[in-house]
Design goal:
14-stranded antiparallel β-sheet, 208 residues, mainly beta, elongated
Length: 208
């Protein structure tokens, strides 16, 4: 069924499950399956959208588009002025310190709705994220990564685990704090090839 939404109307949608996906924004439209009919679902929010789900939070100034196929796979896109926070989990699956903040022009996330996950019902899980900008800028605890295109693959618990910088030129700045008489310094790595940033939960951080 089609649900028209006024341009100034604030919308709040929750795609329910054990790990739900929350969407908010202004104006738009929604095309949702009727009853138990197996068909695609489409949601578009026109302005100031935000979403949160499975370790990822993001907002934008442009539009949000979400389409879910009848097989449970979906794609979520945010446009213009994107600010995304990628949380991280420890080895027990709990959210832990060390979230990454990414500024970009476009966000694309691919996800899948899993079968019955227990008492909470179905759950959403990310399969891949991609952020594009001129360039994107990722802020972590001690590092800043700038690159035209950033992709993220999930870890064991669904949190963004492996970040990969793509494009003509990527730059990683690692900040080393002052210790004793040794002053603070910044180490810089740059290149045109892919740069991988691994985010293990309990075994430290590694750059490859």
């Amino acid at each position: 069924c089609a649900l028209p939404i006024l341009p100034t109307q604030r919308v709040e949608l929750t795609l329910a499950g054990e790990r739900p996906l929350h969407l908010t924004g202004l104006g738009g439209r929604a095309l949702l399956p009727r009853g138990s009919t197996a068909s695609d679902a489409e949601i578009e929010l026109l302005r100031d959208p935000e979403f949160e789900g499975d370790g990822v939070r993001a907002r934008a100034t442009g539009a949000l588009r979400y389409r879910e196929r009848s097989d449970g796979s979906g794609r979520l896109t945010l446009l213009e002025g994107v600010r995304a926070t990628l949380e991280r989990a420890d080895l027990a699956g709990r959210r832990s310190d060390g979230a990454a903040t990414v500024l970009a022009d476009r966000f694309d996330g691919w996800l899948v709705r899993t079968p019955d996950a227990g008492e909470g019902g179905q759950a959403f899980a990310w399969t891949a994220l991609e952020l594009v900008g001129a360039p994107t800028r990722t802020e972590l605890a001690d590092d800043t990564l700038t690159t035209p295109r950033l992709t993220a693959l999930p870890g064991v618990f669904g949190e963004p685990f492996l970040l990969t910088a793509h494009g003509s030129s990527s730059r990683l700045e690692h900040r080393v704090p002052a210790r004793g008489k040794r002053p603070a310094e910044t180490m810089v790595a740059s290149g045109r090839d892919r740069m991988h940033y691994v985010r293990p939960g309990e075994i430290g951080r590694a750059h490859v």
